[in-house]
Amino acid sequence: LVGWPIITFLMAERLRNLGKFTFADVAGYRFEQGPIRSFAAVGTLVVEAFYLIAQMVGAGQLIKLLFGLDYWIAVVIVGALMMVYVLFGGMTATTWVQIIKA
């Protein structure tokens, strides 16, 4: 865990010099871009799905406890409220959703 800031520091300058911002940008620059971008997109969606599942389970349990609703109804309500909030608020709203849930 201690080495991550050092690795990030060493990689940041190289990324800046290449004019790239993500690992997928660098790998796409060095290798065939299509498969690399596809792999990065699928990896991101898989990680995000597990992250979202954990958040929805926690939020559903909290709403179930607070309001005495069935679990699946609580999950649907929380999911709908998050989608509406993010849809109308954009990335700022997404950041605030993450702050509040944390």
Supply database-style keywords.
single chain, 102 residues, mainly alpha, 4 helices, 88% helix, elongated
How would you explain this protein's 3D organization?
The chain is an all-alpha fold and 102 residues long. Helices cover 88% and strands 0% of the residues. It has four helices and no strands. It has helices at residues 3-18, 23-30, 33-67, 71-101. Helix 2 (23-30) packs antiparallel against helix 3. The two termini are 21 Å apart. The model has no long low-confidence stretch (mean pLDDT 83).
Calculate the mean pLDDT score and round it.
83
Structural class: mainly alpha
Report the order of strands and helices: HHHH
Question: How much strand?
Answer: under 5%
The gyration radius over C-alpha positions equals: 19 Å
Shape category? elongated
Number of helices: 4
Care to give the gist of this entry?
The longest helix is centred in the middle third of the chain and has 35 residues, at 33-67.
Helix and strand topology:
Elements: H1 3-18, H2 23-30, H3 33-67, H4 71-101
Helix pairs in contact: 2-3, 3-4
